[in-house]
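STRUCTURE:
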């Protein structure tokens, strides 16, 4: 039952990820149907999620297939930037809240610089302010940005809110997926697991490694070890990696 639930949540997450591209494409081109966007988005995200180095993986895939659909290089660049912004909007919003509310002393056993723990709240506030800044820019900025011949038009506030909503829902779905793989235990609730999951992902992104691998495992293991045996935590992490990363990647291949 847990594996079936995890599989369905994985499908739900990747369905939400296709909306990243859909929102971006609809913002610049009204003619490409959703059914053509889905496989491009799925390929792009599975490669960038699993391998990392999104500029070489997901971006290359999007350039290849969107150019075949007749989009110019400038428009594809805007799509790539929009997808990246959508990803980080939800990450910064959800993880910012988690970092502000999460007690930093729970992470003191990690082999990370001690100054990082004292700055978790500051980092969380910075993440939330960056989200607010993006929304304010959408309200106030109307002129396009020009960079080396590329013109990037700021999205309307309604588009930015859609980006924030879709990305936040996606992160909650993935967090729920991880929660479904953990054995039930007293004193460990859904919100606690989500907070730990989001903090682990935030630190993984700050460490700039594909999928937060290594950092994610360390944070989750340290934070959950007071509730569960380490072998059960690592077992859940391995199954999570297989279901959410490896299987979709193999399908893409």
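SEQUENCE:
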């Amino acid at each position: 039952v847990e594996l079936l639930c995890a599989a369905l949540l994985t499908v739900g997450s990747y369905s939400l990820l296709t909306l990243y591209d859909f929102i971006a494409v609809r913002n610049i081109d009204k003619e490409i149907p959703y059914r053509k966007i889905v496989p491009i988005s799925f390929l792009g995200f599975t490669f960038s999620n699993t391998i990392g180095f999104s500029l070489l993986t997901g971006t290359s895939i999007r350039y290849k297939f969107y150019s075949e659909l007749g989009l110019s290089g400038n428009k594809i660049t805007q799509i790539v930037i929009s997808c990246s912004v959508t990803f980080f909007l939800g990450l910064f919003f959800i993880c910012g809240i988690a970092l502000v509310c999460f007690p930093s002393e729970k992470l003191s056993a990690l082999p990370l610089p001690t100054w990082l723990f004292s700055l978790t709240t500051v980092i969380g506030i910075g993440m939330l302010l960056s989200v607010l800044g993006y929304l304010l820019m959408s309200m106030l900025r109307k002129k396009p940005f020009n960079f080396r011949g590329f013109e990037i038009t700021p999205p309307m506030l309604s588009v930015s809110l859609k980006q924030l909503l879709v990305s936040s829902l996606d992160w909650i779905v993935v967090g729920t997926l991880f929660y479904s793989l953990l054995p039930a235990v007293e004193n460990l609730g859904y919100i606690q697991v989500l907070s730990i999951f989001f903090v682990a992902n935030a630190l993984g992104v700050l460490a700039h490694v594909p999928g937060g691998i290594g950092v994610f495992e360390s944070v989750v293991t340290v934070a959950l070890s007071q509730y569960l045996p380490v072998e059960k935590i690592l077992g859940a992490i391995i199954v999570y990696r297989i279901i959410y990363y490896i299987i979709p990647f193999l399908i893409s291949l």
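REMARK: DSSP finds ten helices and two strands in the chain.
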